[in-house]
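Lecture 7 notes: from sequence to structure.

We start with a single chain of 621 residues. Read the sequence below before looking at the structure.
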Amino acid sequence: MGKRKCGIIMKAVFGTMRNRQIFALDIVLIFLAYMVSIFLIFPAAMFQKYLFDWLLNLFATELVYLIVYFAFGVYRVHWGYATSKEYSRLLSAALLSTVIAFALNALLTTVSVNPKFNLFFNVAIIGMTTVCRFLVKIAHKRRKLTETKHGKRVLIIGAGQLAANLLHDIHNDARLKYSVVGLIDDDKTKHNQIVCGAMVLGTREDIIRVCRLKDVEEIIFSIYEIDAKEKQKILSICTETGCSIKIMSGIDAVLSGNGGVDGVRNIGVEDLLEREPIHLDNEAISEEIKGKTVLVTGGGGSIGSELCRQIAQYNPGQLVIVDVYENSAYDLENELRDKYRNLNLTVLIASIRDEKRLDDIFKEIRPELIFHAAAHKHVPLMEHSPTEAVKNNVFGTYNVVKCADKYGVKRFVMISTDKAVNPTNVMGATKRVCEMIVQTMARNSKTDFVAVRFGNVLGSNGSVIPRFKKQIEAGGPVTVTHPEITRFFMTIPEAAHLVLQAASYAEGGEIFVLDMGQPVKIYELAKKMILLAGYEPEKDIKIEFTGLRPGEKLYEELLMNEEGLKETKHNKIFIGKPMNMTEEELNGKLAILKEALPKGNDAVKAALREVVPTYVPPKEQ
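Now the structure, written as tokens:
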């Protein structure tokens, strides 16, 4: 009989068996074990004699096994999903049944029973009932695989525990329409091995070939212990296949037992730009925040809201969110109240330009720690509205700084930008003035004033990522300003983590500079996003170069030439050398800007060039 016919018969017999049917089958199997034992132990001529002489032995043994199996819950197990735990229970029940059956037969049977036969009989029972259940499990899996054989053809990257969890879910849930073509793993000792019914087909070098030969539609990345750079390399290979790509949650999902299909998510560009995990000194951060009143300006924005989320985890005495835009502040308030029931949260609508309103807030709240994230950040917009940039970024910051000094705030942390380094735009120039304010005030105040400088954050308001996504969804073209333009990138949570860590190191006057890793070409980023969306760059989605926007430069810098660099306890946080500026010099610079404001945009830009010597607009470069 062919393998296919055997499989059909097995599926028909065992594939849909219920426990009442297995109970009936056990009765038959014990009788068969009885007959087989007699046939194998005694001469054929004696078969009929012993068959009837030891019937009492048979009935007693049947009764013992069925009662013990029932008591051990063997008939409550769904054997199609049975694990080693269930088979251990079956073996324990079988061994106990053997002991009881031996004792009972010794007491009840008047005819002497051959001990060799008795032992063989019980071993045969254990073997047959166990094999029966194995066949049920195998047939159940075959049936599930048959039901899903027309599902999406998927290739799994990884052949470890995470992949095993995923395969288990796929095989045991008929709703998951996946047909696994195989696994990929760089461990060559696993090649051609079977993992949960799927074969390991090769290494990362084989991904493109396997996808082409096996008509793969989707790739699922399922490795949790891997270097970030190696992960990026593998995912970059996957993007070249044209398949949709998903990624599984990491080690936390494995340890919690949720590493199956529920942990699968769509891959994002963040995964392709992922860097090494950040290790934080949580004790120092907790000491800085726990029990204190923490105020976040611009708390509804991209960085501000993430700071609020992370601050909430460290049990502040009170978290105060200040923002001029009510919608984002309202959404964040609801999110935090739902997640942190015991959080003492206050949300205030206010503009940092309104000195009186800020004074009232500080007088009432008396914050101990401030994270100043409120600012106008969009470079092209600020080029056309420099007066607004100066009013908000420079004098708004100055208002908050003065309130912090007046009301004895312990620590003030301002969010700065890499665009403040040798600025070529209004926004960067205004943030450089903000750094001057912070460092100068630090020399004359009991408050520890510091700034934290970093580059672009993925997915933030104004980031290229959301814009590229919308352009791709619309069918293109994706617009890039220049083929050589590069930027530093960091995820929003990573930036917020490092800001909190830097705050715990602050002594006053520092500009903390975050390690942004390697700069990324925006053109390459655009191509990767198009590939992730399942399209081919330049063929399906065009990329157009539009020219540098007002105030935009090709390359960003994180340190000014004169600043130097000093290490901290954290390998991703550095300190720039403080500038030497007196309060009189600062007041003079602010007076120049204040005087220029009523005169219009051109006067403000000229004033910025005077106030920030390193500010050189592109036209003058």
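Confidence is low (pLDDT under 50) at residues 3-17, 251-259. Keep this in mind for problem set 3.
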